[in-house]
Amino acid sequence: xxxxxxxxxxxxxxxxxxxxxxxxxxxxxxxxxxxxxxxxxxxxxxxxxxxxxxxxxxxxxxxxxxxxxxxxxxxxxxxxxxxxxxxxxxxxxxxxxxxxxxxxxxxxxxxxxxxxxxxxxxxxxxxxxxxxxxxxxxxxxxxxxxxxxxxxxxxxxxxxxxx
Length: 163
Known about the structure:
By secondary structure, the chain is mostly helical. The protein contains 7 helices and no strands. Helix 1 runs parallel beside helix 4.
């Protein structure tokens, strides 16, 4: 009676089941890198190759959706971390290092969210042309008139300085 061979090493061939397992964990807010640290999962580079492959279009869409869900979970984590009671020292005082650690955790997540989902969590940038700051481009004639005015003012100042 022969024993069934156990596969050696990490998975390297894409399967829908492996894709589902990766995406399920990503939807809980876990990063791809931390998922791929587990021995039962492929290396990060292998997953990236699967995502780049034209034959894995469905996985690519599922991955993108799972990543969005994971980022929303991260946003919830920001509130949970901020709402935690501060760490106390043995004598009952607030531990400054613990507070700073919580601040770092919140700030890191906020930064990631602002870069990954800028329309939702990024800083609002007002550009000329917005409803509150309309863009009024000058015509060539208006620009020439402004330039002539500036030149005439400079000539007048030069005359006053010479006198």
